[in-house]
Amino acid sequence: MEEFSLNMELSGTDARQDKISLFIGSWDINAMDVLMTAFVVSLGDPTRSHPTFQTIAFQQNNHVSNIITKKVKFFRSKSGRGYKRDAPLFTGELVIKRKLNNLYRLNLLVDINPTRFCVYQHTPIRTRASNGIRNLSPSIVLFATQDKIRHGNGEDLEFTLDQSDNCLLTPSSKINASHPLYTDNLNRYLSSIVRYLEDEILEFQQTGFALLGKEEHYSVRNIETYWDIPCPTPTITLRQLEPLIRTSTNKLDINEYLSNELAGSTFSINDLTPCYTCYFRNGESLKLYAKTNKKIRLEVKYNFMKDSTLRSAWGTTPTNINRLFEFINYCSDMSTSTANDLISCLARNDTTRLRQEKSLVEFINSIYMNAPKEHATSILRMLASTDGITSSKAPEHLKSSLDKLVEKGVLMKQSGLSTRYIPQPRYLAASRKLVN
Asked: What's the gap between Cα 17 and its chain centre?
């Protein structure tokens, strides 16, 4: 992928899914109540191993009462302090609901991370007889110690800035996340999770506990699509873009993360790296942040639980794995369009406003020219003491003057946790001198 710039255009081919939350199922089981209870207890029994993967994924339930609705959770990677060994490379829960006449319905609600899954897979070997095609390993790593991964030396060292358990792809693992293998690996990922549950059901099957059938469907709750874009100085670049980002979206949240693992870094006060979250339609958001010391991550999220119209062009829930991948590609296309629209918007602002930065004197004169003298004095005093005038806290008699300053292009409204009046980008550097 090309280096980050405001002239770039992202491609759906380079898009990857960081997180996908979806319902899978359902399985119908005819079971006596006492045997369904015993089945739930057996799922997390540490004294036995799973028949296929030799590892337990479900949390232990020592006592289960009569089941009407039961949610059996998977282990998470973090267990107290540190990381759990051999944790499943997926999270979520098994939802069990009791129907009539000893009928139970099981659904999987899972959160999967295809990128993390790729990290732990065995890298395919390219053989002379395969004409350069890499064949995936028959073994599937569905359980692993989920720890931070670092690779490289010196200036090429890469690691996460927020000290989370997000994994970086090692050079060999990047092959597993490459375009030719990505879809195949994601297919193996989902199939192995489904097989894990089905093996548990079949192993427990006995008189009074029988699998009646399975209805295949995949209901996606939310999905995150991302691009990791090379950038030699991601934090500096993001800081420079902040005035543009503020003007390019109506609703914005800004968080900062400590990046103290970057030894000797001097790119920002207290070594904080910013994370900008832009909100568009209900359920649609875009996040821009430094993923490593060499990359900027641009991430688009769709939450279909908040707004079902986001999927209106698609239609019904996928009823097989192939239709699921078509839906994922549909989301990638939507995400690519959203991401490129933002980049284009930043580029347009970059060529008109930032190169025409105004002085402090011009900023002050613009305030007094477009507001009564007593209003202008109050507004300047408030801007000097805060990082913006919160709309709900602004004195009522100043509202008309603040709105006029927005109309004249001196101030702008920024929406986030609260709506604020802040200086337009060309006045931003000047306005910061007010405090002095």
From this structure: 8
